[in-house]
Design goal:
About 55% of the residues lie in helices and about 0% in strands. It has 6 helices and no strands. The longest helix has 27 residues.
Amino acid sequence: MSWLGPIAAALCALCLSVAVRAAVEAERLSSSELEARYHVLIEELRCPKCQNQNLAGSDSPVAGDLRREIRRLLEEGFSDREITDYMVARYGDFVLYRPPLQRNTLALWLAPGVFGAIGLLALIVIVLRSRSGTGARQDDASAELTEDERRRLQQLLGDDVDGLTGSGKKNDD
């Protein structure tokens, strides 16, 4: 049992080292206003390498470079719009979580509404059919076979149709 203590200490150290690995901004901006703008920008801009992570949540080297670049541009007096335009010029509309409404992004903006309308229409049709009685029901009496259907089934299967006709008897061969 004397080896249990060092192993527990090593596991604790490993867990703490993972928490330290998280992205921590060591450099501070010159004012709290710039700091607030910086945090808004890195939350709204997407990391070009990480696909679906913003710059604030990404640990990739590219995201670190972009955060430093945004910090530099803010200190030089660029506006938020100028910084966003600068990033779009370098990396395209992909860096924006909310791309502008353009011809090439029209499907991104219209697809949620179209799919929502289709879903709503399907729901309305299902509700109307269930209320009018035209939809199939589980307790529908038409599930029983007619005499013609039973004769046809008996011809196809032979005499072993007792279990299928609902009489409750089954032949065990």
